[in-house]
Design a protein that fits this description.
Blueprint: E1 2-4, E2 9-10, E3 14-15, E4 20-22, H1 27-30, H2 32-42, H3 46-83, H4 85-88, E5 91-92, E6 95-96, H5 97-133
Antiparallel strand pairs: 1-4, 2-3, 5-6
Helix pairs in contact: 2-3, 3-5
C-alpha cells in the first residue's frame, strides 16, 4: 500500500518531488500462525494440549534414557566385580578398585550425566519454542 505525501516547497518557491511511503501489510499475516499457536497454548485447547504433551513426552523419554545410562553405569559395577572377582581385589594407590570406582569416579559420572540432561532438556525446550514461534511458510 502506498500513500502520497503532499507537496511542500521550501520557502513557498518550488515544490519538492513527491515521496512515496511504502507500508508492508503482510507482516501481521506472517505471524498469524505463531499467534494462533500461542493462543491455543494459553487457552489450553486440544492443539495446545497436544503440543505440551509432546514436550512432556520428549522430556520423559530423555529422563528415562539417562536413567538407564546411570543404572547400567553404576548398577553394572557390582555385576562386573561379581563376574571378575580378581578385578574386585585390585588395588590402586593402596585403595581397592571398587571403592575408587563407586566412591570417587561415580561423582564425576553423575555430574556428566546431569550436565548432559540439562543440555538436552534445554534443546527440547528450544525445539518446542521454535515450533510454536515458527512463522507460516
Amino acid at each position: 500500500m502506498a500513500k502520497q505525501l503532499p507537496d511542500v516547497g521550501l520557502g513557498g518557491t518550488a515544490p519538492t518531488p513527491r515521496r512515496t511511503r511504502i507500508v508492508l501489510a503482510d507482516i501481521t499475516r506472517q505471524n498469524s500462525r505463531a499467534e494462533r499457536t500461542r493462543t491455543e497454548l494459553a487457552q489450553q485447547t486440544q492443539v495446545g494440549e497436544a503440543l505440551v504433551r509432546g514436550l512432556v513426552r520428549a522430556q520423559l523419554a530423555l529422563a528415562l534414557r539417562l536413567s538407564l545410562v546411570v543404572a547400567i553405569g553404576l548398577g553394572g559395577l557390582p555385576w562386573l566385580f561379581a563376574i571378575a572377582p580378581s578385578l574386585g581385589r585390585t588395588t590402586v594407590a593402596g585403595v581397592n578398585l571398587p571403592w575408587l570406582l563407586l566412591g570417587v569416579a561415580s561423582f564425576p559420572f553423575l555430574i556428566a550425566v546431569g550436565w548432559a540432561y540439562v543440555r538436552l532438556a534445554e534443546r527440547n525446550e528450544q525445539d518446542f519454542t521454535d515450533l510454536v514461534q515458527r512463522p507460516e511458510r
